[in-house]
Design a protein that fits this description.
Helix content is 46%, strand content 22%. With 270 residues, the chain is α+β, with helices and mostly antiparallel strands. The chain has a 5-stranded mixed β-sheet with strand order 4-6-7-9-8. Strands 3-5-10 form a 3-stranded antiparallel β-sheet. The radius of gyration is 24 Å and the shape is globular. The structure holds adenosine-5'-diphosphate. Adenosine-5'-diphosphate binds at residues 162, 166-167, 170, 195, 197-198, 200, 208, 213-216, 220, 225-231, 254.
């Protein structure tokens, strides 16, 4: 059983006749509440970096600062602007994904090329994330599928890249991150990212793909997260007939897998 909200209208005809119309408006109200939450979340996410930026601008305008102090303010301001840029580009990507029909199966992307690009991006990101650290992440990329995958290359790259960047952002320096693409015995293919990060408690796992859902808000922000990454991954997976699975235990790392159907794959070397 679930609570239901009904909209009831009563019409009175001549001759004592009554017409009662009732409509279940639960879904409409839920959609409206979700939309309100979403707008409130977006406004909050944009307001925070804007407030910080405005504060720094005011400081620069009113105080006579030494050159190195001014530079450190400018660096912080650049970080806040970048945060807003990522947020807006993730929002645009989500709205495009939600508003356009699923892509046709006529664009094929080379899986080894995709994996090479992901590895390059990951190495660049670990270098930035670990700039002040003694150790860098141990990245292990493995492509066991010499073939192509059908879909929109930019979407696939973005979804897979989000999983890899999450692994890097949530795993402490020096931790191991394994990324692989392989074909399963039943013909499906699996893109997998395994990390040695803090892991995720079971009660959070089903909600991770909700927009702006974060287990630890400050950790996500600190590492440049928008809270939209996994929502994007889930949408892209769905549009490609694929499935996102998340497995984790608190303190034991996490494993994210996107499983693609055999119909989306073709081998290039027989
Ligand atoms: P964010 O930008 O906050 O990382 P995501 O949608 O990508 O947003 O992820 C949602 C939340 O899921 C994160 O805030 C974090 O709490 C959790 N999460 C995602 N990936 C990992 C991971 N590899 N290890 C631990 N927690 C993760």
């Amino acid at each position: 059983t679930r609570p239901v909200r009904l909209s009831v209208q009563l019409y009175h005809y001549g001759g004592g006749r009554l017409l009662l119309l009732s409509r279940d408006v639960t879904a409409v109200e839920q959609a409206e509440a979700m939309r309100r939450d979403f707008v409130a979340n977006v406004s909050h996410e944009i307001r925070t970096p804007l407030t910080v930026l405005a504060g720094f601008v005011e400081t620069l305008q009113t105080l006579e600062l030494a050159a190195d102090e001014r530079d450190s303010y400018l660096t912080l301001m650049a970080q806040q602007s970048m945060r807003m840029q990522s947020l807006v580009s993730d929002l645009l990507m989500l709205s495009r994904l939600e508003g356009s029909p699923a892509p046709s199966v006529d664009t094929w992307s080379s899986v080894p090329t995709l994996m090479r690009q992901l590895e390059q991006d990951a190495r660049a990101l670990t270098a930035v994330v670990n700039l002040n650290e003694q150790q860098v992440h141990a990245l292990d990329f493995h492509c066991a599928f010499e073939g192509e995958i059908a879909g929109v290359a930019t979407e696939l790259h973005s979804a897979m890249g989000n999983l890899v960047s999450n692994a890097i952002r949530y795993t402490p320096p020096g931790g191991h991150i394994g990324v692989s693409f392989r074909q399963l015995p039943d013909g499906q293919a699996e893109f997998e990212v395994v990390d040695a990060g803090p892991g995720i408690a079971p009660e959070h796992i089903p909600r991770l793909t909700e927009r702006f859902y974060r287990v630890d808000r400050s950790r996500s922000r600190e590492t440049g997260g928008t809270g939209l990454g996994l929502a994007i991954v889930k949408h892209v997976a769905q549009r490609h007939g694929a499935h996102l699975a998340i497995e984790s235990k608190l303190g034991q790392g996490a494993r994210f897998r996107i499983t693609f159907p055999a119909t989306r794959l073709r081998a290039t070397h027989q």
